[in-house]
């Protein structure tokens, strides 16, 4: 009973700030923020969505009831650290089906949409031709289709960085990036001398959807530690540094550094031994099967003359 009462109460609050259109749709009527009057995302599009409500229509006010819905997840593909003039897709996903989604940058709703993927709890927001102004903290949320518009908790913050505002740092590794599985690999990222202000460092790996690690610097450099590395840690790494607050300017990425992780010699010899045993076992099985076939054929030939006699 209490949740239903809270929903109605929340709807009443929202209705007091909105209006009803001729088609019965509840609309938001709070004054648009400057960021919505002058969009910072002129190239924002939505893949697989119906035409967004723009112009004379507003977006529904999102009422928030704590713990009403589990919060969704927000991820970036191919990465949350992108070069300018590239494209990125932000995916908002939840286990709750048949809901509408909203994408926010900071506190401002960029767009509320009904996804054709809502039956599986997924919405995709595509940002094209990225610029420095696109960098920032993004969240997403979802709300039920129909009145009252009760919103979920917002997702964890996704920091989108657009590189190219500062000179690139340098990235170095001990032992030239060569390591044995189980070792600790330390990568040191160092920024140029002429950079001032509070910055953070991010370690990137080619193919990863976001930074591997994010650290505050000690002076103009910081160390990234890869603990107990495995062969899967082999790859090309780079680093960037960025402002900790808006406008979140980020540097060019450092030159790529290849890290190679090899299995320890003992493990390799054990692998070879295991492989040899497997191959030997298969050979024995094949020999037994072939021997059985030969015996069967010999017995058949021996019984044939008796049958004819």
UniProtKB/TrEMBL annotation:
**PROSITE patterns from the xrefs?**
IG_LIKE
KW Ion transport (keyword) present: no
Q: Which residues form the Ig-like domain?
A: 169-239
Q: Which GO terms describe its biological process?
A: immune response-regulating signaling pathway
The reply on keyword Disulfide bond is yes
Q: Which residues form the signal peptide?
A: 1-16
Extract one GO cellular component term from the record: plasma membrane
Q: Which UniProt keywords are listed?
A: Disulfide bond, Glycoprotein, Immunoglobulin domain, Membrane, Repeat, Signal, Transmembrane, Transmembrane helix
**Coiled-coil spans in chain:** none
**TM ranges:** 277-299
Put simply, this protein is called T-cell-interacting, activating receptor on myeloid cells protein 1
Give the species this sequence originates from. Ailuropoda melanoleuca
């Amino acid at each position: 009973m209490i949740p239903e009462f809270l929903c109605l109460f929340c709807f009443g609050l929202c209705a007091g700030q909105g209006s009803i259109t001729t088609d019965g749709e509840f609309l938001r009527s709070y004054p648009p923020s400057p960021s919505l009057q002058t969009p910072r995302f002129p190239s924002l599009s939505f893949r697989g969505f119906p035409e967004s409500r723009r112009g004379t229509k507003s977006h529904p006010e999102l009422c928030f009831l704590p713990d009403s819905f589990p919060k969704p997840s927000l991820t970036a593909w191919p990465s949350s650290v992108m070069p300018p003039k590239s494209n990125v897709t932000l995916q908002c996903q939840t286990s709750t089906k048949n809901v509408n989604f909203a994408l926010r940058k900071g506190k401002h709703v960029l767009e509320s949409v009904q996804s054709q993927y809502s039956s599986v709890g997924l919405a995709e927001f595509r940002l094209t031709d990225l610029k420095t102004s696109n960098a920032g903290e993004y969240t997403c949320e979802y709300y039920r289709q129909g009145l009252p518009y009760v919103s979920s908790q917002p997702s964890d913050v996704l920091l989108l960085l657009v590189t190219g505002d500062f000179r690139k740092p340098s990235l170095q590794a001990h032992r030239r990036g060569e390591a044995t599985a189980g070792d600790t690999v330390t990568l040191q990222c160092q920024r140029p001398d002429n950079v001032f202000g509070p910055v953070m460092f991010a370690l990137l790996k080619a193919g990863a959807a976001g930074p591997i690690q994010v650290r505050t610097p000690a002076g103009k450099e910081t160390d990234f530690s890869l603990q107990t590395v495995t062969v899967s840690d082999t790859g090309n790494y780079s680093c960037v540094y960025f402002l900790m607050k808006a406008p979140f300017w980020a540097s060019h990425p450092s030159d790529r550094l290849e890290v190679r992780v090899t299995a320890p010699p003992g493990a390799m010899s054990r692998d070879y031994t295991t492989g040899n045993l497997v191959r030997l076992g298969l050979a024995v099985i094949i020999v037994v099967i072939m021997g059985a076939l030969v015996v069967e054929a010999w017995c058949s030939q021996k019984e044939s003359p008796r049958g004819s006699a």
